Amino acid sequence: MTLCKYRSQRTYDGQFLIDEFDADGLQRVLYRKIAYMGTSNDKNVAYYIGASVALSTLFDYSRDAGMIDRQDNFMDIFDERIKNVEGDL
After folding, report:
1. What are the boundaries of each domain within the chain?
2. By the 8 A CB rule, do 53 and 78 touch?
3. 26-65: b or e for each residue (b if 16 or more CB lie within 10 Å)?
4. Are 4 and 16 spatial neighbours (Cβ–Cβ below 8 Å)?
5. High-pLDDT (> 70) share of the chain, %
6. Rg of the chain on CA atoms, in Å
7. Which pTM value belongs to this model?
8. CA distances from 65 to 29, 35, 37, 57, 69 (A)
9. Can you give the pLDDT at residue 88?
10. Which of 4-13, 32-41, 53-62, 77-86 has the lowest mean pLDDT?
């Protein structure tokens, strides 16, 4: 099964397509990896947490709010979510 597909043209500019179920699956794989790395005290776990927060910002926030309008909006939401994660570490 294809996780992500790039279409160079449609009726407008190129676009990436990621199915909702595949996005959820990708997040689950990251969560499992983070849990495993946490139990093994892997020092690289912060990178995986960052990737997880970024994907969650894109997918979960868009699902809940309907969209993320611009790159600046993404960064604002991502920064806020990172602050929340830092408090949990």
Report:
1. 19-88
2. yes
3. bbeebeebbeebeeeeeeebeebbeebbebbbbbebeeee
4. yes
5. 90
6. 15
7. 0.79
8. 24, 28, 31, 11, 10
9. 60
10. 4-13
